[in-house]
Structure formats: C-alpha cells, structure tokens
Amino acid sequence: MFDVRPGLVVVIALSAVGPAWAQTEAAPERVTFQEAVRRATERNPTVAEAAQAILRAEALLDQARSVFRPTLYGDVSTTILDAARGFGGNITQPRTQYSFNGTVTYPFLAAARWARKSQAADQVEIARISAEDTRRQVALTAAQAYLAAIGAAHQRDIALRNRDTARALADYARARLEAGQGSRLNHVRASQEVAVAEGLIQAAELAVQQAREALGIAIFSEAPVDAAGDPEIEAAAAPSDEDTWLIRRPDVRLFTAQAQAAERVVRDNWKSWLPEGTAFFTPQYVTPPGFFAPAKTWVAFFQLQIPIYDGTLGATKRVRVADRETARLRLDAVKLEARSEVRLAQESVARHEQIAAASREAAARAIEALHITEIAYKAGATTNIEVVQAQQTARNAEIVASLAEDRLRQARLDLLVALGQFP
C-alpha cells in the first residue's frame, strides 16, 4: 500500500532520481595530495614559461660572455675593370682580380661590456628564483583546490548521514501512523525533514562536482578529479632564527636578487667612462697580384676610443639609481609582509586548533543528544518536534566541526607557505 500524500511523494521521487543519476555518472579519477601538487607543477604552462625564461637569460649571458672571445669575419671579392691598368708595359692592376681576406677583432679593453657579463649572470639567477616562485604559486593553487574538494566531500557525507537519520525517523513515524498510534502531524514533520535533507544532498553533490572540476583544472586533467583522502599537513614549527625562514621564501629571495642586481648595475656605472680598446688583424691574399699590390699582405690596427662627453651617461645613471631604490623598497615591503604572514599564520593555526577541538566536542554532544531524544520519542516521553530540532542542531554542529577541520588544514598549509616550507 502506497502513501500518496504530497510530502511523501516528493521524498520517493527524490530517492528514485538520486541513485539512477549516480549509476550513469562515471567515477572520477582519484589522486592524493602529493600527486595533485606534483602533477600541477609538471603540467602547468606557467611553470614551462618560467623554464623558458631561464633559457632566455642563459642565452643572454652567453651573449654577454662573447666580449671575452675574438670575432672573425671572412671576405671574398672580385674586381673587374674595363681594361688592365699599367704603364711602360707593366701591369699595375689586372683587369680581373680576386681578393681573399679575414678580419680578427678582439676588445682588449672594454670594462663596460665586461660588467654586463656579471649583470647577465644576475638575471639568470633571478629567472631561476622566479621559476621557483611560480612553481610555489602553482603548487599552492593545486593544494587549495584539493582542500576544497575534501571540504565539499565532508559536507556531502554530513548531508547523507542527516538524510539517513531523517529517513529512519520518517519510517518510524509512518509505522506508528499506520498502526494507529502516531499522529499525522508527526509524520508530516518527519517527511519534511527528509525532503529538506534530500535538497541539501543535491546542493552538496553540486559543490562536490564543482570542486572536482576545479581540482581537475588545477592539475591540468581533461576530466574532473577527486581527492583521495584527507592530506597529512603537519603544523610547522617556526625556526628560532628569522633569517633562516626568510631566505627560504622564493618571493623574498627573488626581490633580494633583484635588489642585488640593481645595486651591481649602479656600481658598474663608472665603467661607462673608461676607454674602450679594440685590436684588428686582417690578412689578405690577392690573385693575380698587381704591381703595387703583392699577393700576400696583412694589416694590424689598434683603436682606443675615449669618451669625452656623452650626454646620455648622466641620465642613464639616474635611471639606474632609481631602479635600485625601487628594488630596495620592494624588498623591504615583501620582508614586512612575510613577517606579518608568519605571525598571522601561527596565530591562525593556534586558534583553529582550539576551534576544531571545541567544534568536535560540540558535534559529539549534539549527536549524543539526538540519540537520547530519539529514544525518548520512541518511548513516548516527548514529541517529534524535539527530535526534529535535535536533528537540525546535530547537522549544524557537524557542519561547523567539518568546516573547522577544513580551516585548520588550510591554516597549517598557510603556515608552511609563509615559512617557505611548501612545496
């Protein structure tokens, strides 16, 4: 015999739709916390772009090092005249003449160009640290997506347990009603709670799917990805020496390297006023030789270029000084922010540990109160309005406890990031 009352019809319809939809959905891939971070850092194109930036900086360093190597050029030419030149029966210049020569150039004095080699080496180090900082940001995004997926799964589990409890109460209320011992009001209240629980499950399932999609995007998967269990994120202990954890942060190291590079550029500015000396050596072979041009010759040439006045050098120095001061200000700002992040992260971990412990205790007491209320209701000592209120209280307490656990994991992750210990 089927009960066709509206409240129960909705419950049956939702119950029938849920399993049918779940049967058609393919199970997503499950990854661990460490696997998610690893795949994100390996597949993210931003990390690959940072690697290309390192290669570009290394190429510029090789280009700057070329100042210590000689330069060699070859030249082949053919000269054709309308007629041979000469006098007294002697040919001074043949009508057709071929010339082969090469020029070797070496800067024996180029202080400004030599300085660029060290400056280019600084840029390689900056590119490497920048790639490390990019990798940290990508890993952090994947870790946060993983924690979001875990949190959504916890909320869904709470909704499922609440639905099962509500169904049990609804079944009991129906049995009492059919036996002529219960009231229609109690049955309606219980059916209402089942309908509410079913709606919360659908909302939780949507949140889980959204979190899976976000995790799949974070690790560059072509399909949604599920989290395979709670990650083990231990609370990091702050080191006694501030410089120890500061230097481990990629952002602090990056701004430090940029400030040091800008300082080197300013220190090397005086080298722009030094003379530049270049040596040239050009051997030549001419065939057929002329009367005044032997077949084999060579020329050596030394040039010393002395800067007497260059209106751009002063302005260039002012620009470099401004860049140095800007880099210093950025370094001071990022250090200040890093210290603040560590203090806040440590306080957040301590507070969330207390919040999580209190929330777990509250949830356990709420569940115990629900069980006592259910027993009392079945014994006829109370009405189901107290049971419904206890269900709602237990559900809310479980949600708060789950959120507290999720926030504690996030706080521990933030502390690891602030101390430069992640990934």
Molecular structure report:
The protein is of the alpha+beta class and 423 residues long. The chain has one domain (30-79, 94-418): Outer membrane efflux proteins (OEP), CATH 1.20.1600.10. Helices cover 66% and strands 14% of the residues. It has nine helices and eight strands. Strands 2-5-7-8 form a four-stranded antiparallel sheet. Strands 1-6 form a two-stranded parallel ribbon. Strand 7 and strand 8 form a beta hairpin. Helix 3 packs antiparallel against helix 4 (111-178) and helix 7 (250-267) runs antiparallel to helix 8. The longest helix has 68 residues, at 111-178.
Task: Set down the secondary structure blueprint.
Elements (H helix, E strand, L loop, with lengths): L5 H19 L4 E3 L1 H11 L1 H21 L5 E10 L4 E3 L2 E4 L2 E15 H68 L5 H35 L6 E3 L14 H5 L3 H18 L8 E12 L8 E10 L5 H68 L5 H35 L5
Parallel strand pairs: 1-6
Antiparallel strand pairs: 2-5, 3-4, 5-7, 7-8
Helix pairs in contact: 1-5, 2-4, 3-4, 4-5, 4-7, 4-9, 7-8, 8-9
